[in-house]
Predict the structure.
Amino acid sequence: MSADDRTFRNSLKGFGIVPRWPLAAVVLSSVVCAPLTAQEKSLPQQIADVLVQLGGGIHPGFRFMHAKGLVLTGTFTPAKGAASISRAAHLGGGAVPVTVRFSDGTGVPNIPDTDPNAGPRGMAIRFALPGGAFTDIVAISHNGFVVGTGEEFLAFLKAIAATRPDSPHPSPVEAFLGSHPRALKFVIDNRPLPASFAKLAYFGNNAFVFVNAAGTQHAGRYQIIPVAGLASLDSASAAKAGPNYLFDEVRQRLARGPVQFRLYAQLANPDDPTKDGSVVWPADRQRVPLGTISLTTVAPNNDELQRSLMFNPIFLTDGIQLSDDPLIPLRSAVYALSVAHRK
């Protein structure tokens, strides 16, 4: 069993999930085994079940969320001074290879890029480390997650699933959003259509603890800012956009040159909450440049990579540690249930 498998397995035990290894053998009890009642199912299992429902069922070979995607490759070059925050291997040496996946939201593999439910967009990054190791960042195109706890996330998904076109007002999802203002902002902010994957900012809304060579610790969140600037489509351009315009555009952009992002760590002040990813820290918090991501190539064998790559926020390395944010291990547990259907 690899170190990644051991870390992953341990994270699942806390949620009552004890998978058989290898990872490909993880099963959803609600799909493969005898059905359980909602009271018997773990929180990750309940979330996975509703995600499957919202995605129109199981789509073998695809994720439960962010099913539609594209894998790119390139390099990450650390910034001077990044090692002052973390002793992580990719922040203190030369350039390292990266694998990046851009994606639409939802578990629908063929969702049009123009669908208002296709946001937030996703950006997952894998940094190659010495000796064949790696570490991941999983980010979305919104600063602040929709809610702060797994229970609230399940309630949000259930409210969506319970809402029908003929639902009386307020519908279940309207009632939820009316009582969760940060969730309402999340939904509204994700409606505009981006001009490009390369003109979106992405945020790792979960806090991590960065540890430098002296052992000094700083809680922080990732911010990934496009070098090309931020841009959304105007109404005329949005009306003419095709169902795959984002994926077509990024391929065309790569043909003209690299797609680049600046990676930052936004550091928390002592009173900033680190266990609620829906609470956005003030913009005046210190941002430390960590380096530049430069993407140059659409990865070959993309369909196979879509199935085999499993980005995970708990795939960390020395110098980066988990915080007290409960959504990090929860996300890992849901990913374990999803990965069985991508093999």
